[in-house]
Amino acid sequence: MAAPAHPPAPGTIRIDSNESVYGPTATAREAAVASMNDAERYPLDGPRVLGDAIARRFDLDPARITCGSGSDDLLARLARVFLRAGDELVYPVHGYQKIPNYAHANDATPVPADDREFTADIDAIIDRLNDRTRMVMLANPDNPTGTFVTGKEIRRLHAALPPSVLLVLDSAYAEYVDTPEYELPDRLVEESDNVVMTRTFSKVFGLAGMRIGWLYGPPRIIDLVTRVGITFPLSAPSLAASLAALEDEEHTRFVVRENAAVREAFVSRLSALGLTVFPSQTNFVLARFAGGAEQARGAQEWLESNGVLPRRLAAGDFADCIRFTIGSAAEMTRTAELLTGFLS
């Protein structure tokens, strides 16, 4: 899942990294540029300032928020704080593919739990729990599958965990979800002592290049995660851009609305071509090719040769799949046309 080694040529359709094709709001760009007027200064109290703004936007407790260089930074810090040699981290086998690394980096053991058609299986996760389990981690909605677990099932999972096990819920794609069965985990966090939620500005806010993430959890955990972070985890441009992005709610609604419409049209085109498209609550879709890994590899090469960069996950059960980030309507139309030519 590595990014291209060299910058793509101009005009390339980049639908490989789940970025927002719509980018950030104009005010976020302007704020980032303006922050360079004080580039010689450290951004003092960045996590607190941004945490207060996040709390206002989402009606949360600011004492339960800390920020970092993307949610990946915060997930890594959580693992650093809570995992030791011999501990186990349980995760869905086809979930976010970086989760095992968080365990390995701390001499802990990643324990994959079987899923059901690329959707996390709560019973399978519960079955993998034992006295060595220290953490359960899953992205919801998940990546690279796009699938989600209902709020009812997440709460059932939490009820099965002993207080000594931390439940980590990465909600990077939460803004895109439109099903009533989904539940943001913020209330579960507030009701519990062993649940945390991570969020990001890399997706719907269009600030992937700025590296901004935040964590919502019990104050005790927030304190620990903050202590193991660097002194100034947010750059001045990142802080300025994220504060401005939070203010422009209309831009967020626009991105969500456009993504859903383009995704629906693209899924219809792929399904008509005979591809199996897994239900997605995100800004990407995962498609399986009936011709197996060889056909998926051929489709990837054909698309790339025509200036379209999707993401093929070549390992294991993903070998016959390609993940497509949802770009603009024109980009997804072009992608579908190329696939039609390849498959015919």
Can you walk me through this structure?
This protein is of the alpha/beta class. It is 40% helix and 17% strand. The protein has twelve helices and 15 strands. The protein has helices spanning 26-34, 46-58, 70-82, 99-104, 122-127, 151-160, 186-191, 219-227, 236-247, 249-272, 292-305, 329-343; strands spanning 13-14, 65-68, 88-92, 109-113, 115-116, 119-120, 133-139, 166-170, 195-200, 213-216, 276-277, 284-288, 308-309, 311-312, 321-325. The strands form four sheets. A seven-stranded mixed beta sheet has the order 2-10-9-8-7-3-4, with helices on both faces. The protein has a four-stranded antiparallel beta sheet with strand order 11-12-15-14. The chain starts with 12 loop residues before the first strand and ends with a helix. The model has no long low-confidence stretch (mean pLDDT 96).
